[in-house]
Amino acid sequence: MMMRRKGFWSLAGFTLSELLLAAAILAFVLTGLLLLFINCSLLNEANRNLTIATSYAQELMEVIESKRFDENTVPPWTASANLGVDLDESRANKGTFDDVDDFMTSGANSCTDPWVTTPATGYSRSVVVDYVTLNVTTWQTSTNPTDYKRIIVSVNWKDRNGRERHIDLETLITK
Ligand SMILES: [Ca+2]
Ligand SMILES: [Ca+2]
Q1: What is the model's pTM?
Q2: Closest ligand to 90 CA?
């Protein structure tokens, strides 16, 4: 007891078991901090990927929204089965597109322009355009042309563990 009073930092004042206990506590605290640090950086990376994916979705949505409602400038609008890239346009060149459904990435007349489908390595984009109609309070897909089209832009990517992630951006446009 007398030795401890010599000074707080005096090693002579600690027994071996006290030192071992202190070392164990230190190791425990450091492990916790390390795990916290790893978790934070994983969360950071996930957030960054989500932000990038969102900007890719917004980028394409803005380009689509700058086009007109339909290939036809007056009704009747294009039949559902014929939505997509039109005869005078090239499926692989978005520069030839003039209406919103030209950007559809599925169906017989789908767009194959890599700018649309693959914005960057590891990210892919898809576009669905449907006619919709308002049923009481919800919009429903319509097989017959209506004055409303719903555009869904999806961006897909894989996280660090190879798990599929995606975000969807949806908007309604009218003639
Ligand atoms: Ca067109
Ligand atoms: Ca079209």
Answers
A1: 0.82
A2: 1
